[in-house]
Amino acid sequence: METIRINAQEEIAGAAKKAADVIRAGGVVLYPTDTLYGLGADAFSDKAVEKVYAIKGRADDKPIHAIVSDMAMAEEYGDISHITRQLASRLPRGKLTFIVNKKEGLDAGICRGIPTFGFRIPDNAFCAALLEELGTPVTATSANKSTEAPERTVAAILKQLSGDRPEPDSYASVLQNTSIAKIDLAIDAGELPESQSSTVVDLSSPKNPVILREGAIEAASVWNAIRAGY
């Protein structure tokens, strides 16, 4: 696994290009987002998404969501209602995940076997550069074992995913772990600020929205924005 550290704005473009190349080739990237480090893969590749599930030890019946560059990209894959646009315009980017009905005929990757498409629009420089370089949605599930809390550094994430306990900045002893071996590239932005996962709102029935998970945005703020849209 290669690791690229990004400590300045000018380093982001090169890292995003490398990450996009890995994802196009069917690989998995560990990368920083608005909230937590995520596991990024081609959102509509069955094999790539299966790798992400395997890394997390996540049950197949728990959907994985994606990041998209903007609502125009989201519209290519999901049915976007007025209330979805309303929430996107009123609430902070990157901290709200939308669940909408998927486009007819879309049955691969994160949409395989389910009727919905989950996405969020990031407000993060690396995510924006990656999506611009790639031009398609990227998986955005948090980089942690499904039974454990997310960590905020690459070193701690690798320790958790491997089940090993090396020194904080030592990757060598964990890279042969079968789970870690599925990660092809790590984009290391240092320790991310403390943050909750994104709030998830199900808008597949626009007249009956449901908050599936309260996270970085309080439920009350979501409901206020929904009421303002009607």
How would the blueprint of this fold be written?
Layout: E1 2-5, H1 12-24, E2 29-32, E3 37-40, H2 46-56, E4 66-67, H3 71-75, H4 82-90, E5 96-101, E6 116-120, H5 125-134, E7 138-139, E8 141-142, H6 154-162, E9 185-188, E10 199-202, E11 210-213, H7 219-229
Parallel strand pairs: 1-9, 2-9, 4-6, 5-10
Antiparallel strand pairs: 2-3, 3-8, 4-7, 5-6, 10-11
Average residue-wise pLDDT? 90
Give the count of helical stretches: 7
Element pattern in H and E: EHEEHEHHEEHEEHEEEH
Low-confidence stretches: 165-176
Q: Look at the structure and give the CATH class.
A: Alpha Beta
How many discrete domains?
A: 1
Q: What is the CATH superfamily label?
A: DHBP synthase
Largest sheet: 6 strands, mixed
Q: Any idea what the radius of gyration is? A: 17 Å
- In the sheet with the most strands, the strands line up as 7-4-6-5-10-11
Instruction: Provide the helix percentage.
Output: 25-40%
The name of the CATH architecture is Alpha-Beta Complex
Total strand segments: 11
Please report which band the strand proportion falls in: under 5%, 5-15%, 15-25%, 25-35%, 35-45% or over 45%: 15-25%
Structural class: alpha/beta
End-to-end separation in angstroms reads 49 Å
User: How is the CATH topology named?
Assistant: DHBP synthase
Instruction: Please state the overall shape, judged from the principal axes of the Cα atoms.
Output: globular
